[in-house]
Write a structure and sequence with these properties.
- The protein is mostly beta strands.
- The chain is about 0% helix and about 50% strand.
- Strands 1-10-3-4-5-6 form a six-stranded antiparallel β-sheet, with no helix packed on it. A six-stranded antiparallel β-sheet has the order 12-21-14-15-16-17, with no helix packed on it. A five-stranded antiparallel β-sheet has the order 9-8-7-2-11, with no helix packed on it.
- This is Galectin.
- Keywords: Lectin.
- One of its GO terms (molecular function) is carbohydrate binding.
């Protein structure tokens, strides 16, 4: 059998930064495990990603399984067999490791990752025709070859010493640049969520918000300058880019790492979050409700884009 693990990298624990926990980021609400959910819609498509985020509540660990059905646990009175676990990702806190397995033919591998009780976690599984890409704390730790077609996956199951902020399936394979209309416009209270992966040698990427021919807000992350620049262009007049930031992290992105951006339209300004940590703000130049479309461009792979 071909090896299930194409690459294993050690994972250094990043500097701990507390995420913002309020109604904007949604981290003020959690839900308990065991968590079992059927995948919405049709079978998985290449480019789709599972994103599981939460925090550790105990000292033993937790598992994230992609299964072929809802039979994921048996008690003494049950008769029958468990559905196949087509990908099993088990975080073992005492051993400081993440074990990867597909519980069909017994092979197993692991990567180092140290969590402790109270730590937040971010695990992402991106689907392709022949393999999964597995990200832990935004870093690619393994390419995991499919044992069976990913179309056999029907459920996600999470259990163990954790509480969850979110479990979601995002996106597809996007063409760049990405352009989309904003139904109902980007009025105060709306949120744009963007999940992506930076290229191996990125120069920059940008998100432009359009109101007709005007650009009320542009956020551009320059990997060369190690800065996040914000500006606008109204009636042909561009503002000087702003580069100030909050907190201790000057530039929150790295090559080949996954990341999230959240842009929230507050009453008088935009709030920009990277990985649910407030990074900067930008005052409205014209009413946010005039923004009718957006464009995303640059040296990234889009995982998901949605507006609430």
């Amino acid at each position: 059998m071909a090896s299930i693990l194409r690459r294993i990298l050690s994972v250094r624990k990043p500097k701990k930064v507390l995420t913002r926990k309020d109604s904007i980021t949604g981290r003020n609400h959690t839900f308990e495990v065991p968590y079992l959910s059927r995948l919405d819609g049709n079978q998985l498509q290449p480019g789709q990603s599972l994103i599981a985020r939460g925090y550790v509540t105990g000292s033993e660990g937790f598992i994230v399984n992609l299964t072929s059905g809802p039979n994921v646990e048996l008690d003494e009175e049950d008769v029958g067999e468990l559905d196949d676990r087509l990908l099993a990702l088990r975080v073992d806190l005492p051993k400081g490791k993440v074990f990867l397995n597909a519980c069909i033919n017994g092979q197993q591998a692991f990567v180092k990752q140290s969590y402790k009780e109270g730590d937040e976690f971010d695990i992402r599984i991106r689907c392709f025709e022949k393999h999964f890409e597995i990200y832990v704390e935004h870093k690619l730790i393994a390419n995991f070859k499919h044992y069976v077609p990913m179309s056999n996956i029907s459920h996600i199951y999470v259990t163990g010493d954790v509480r969850l902020y979110a479990v979601s399936w995002e996106g597809k394979l996007y063409n760049m640049p990405y352009t989309a209309d904003i139904p109902g416009n980007f009025y105060v209270g709306r949120k744009l969520f963007v999940s992506a992966i930076a290229d191996a040698k990125p120069k920059d990427f940008s998100i432009d918000f359009f109101a007709g021919d005007d650009v009320p807000f542009r956020v551009c992350a320059s990997f060369v300058q190690k800065k996040v620049l914000r500006s606008s262009e109204i009636s042909g007049s561009a503002t000087t880019p702003e580069t100030t930031y909050e907190g201790k992290i000057k530039f929150p992105l790295k090559a080949k790492r996954s990341f999230d951006i959240l842009v929230y339209a507050a009453d008088d300004k935009f709030l920009v979050f990277f990985n649910d940590v407030l990074y900067c703000t930008f005052d409205h130049r014209i009413p946010a409700a005039s923004i009718e479309r957006l464009q995303i461009n640059g040296d990234i792979q889009l995982i998901g884009v949605h507006i609430k």
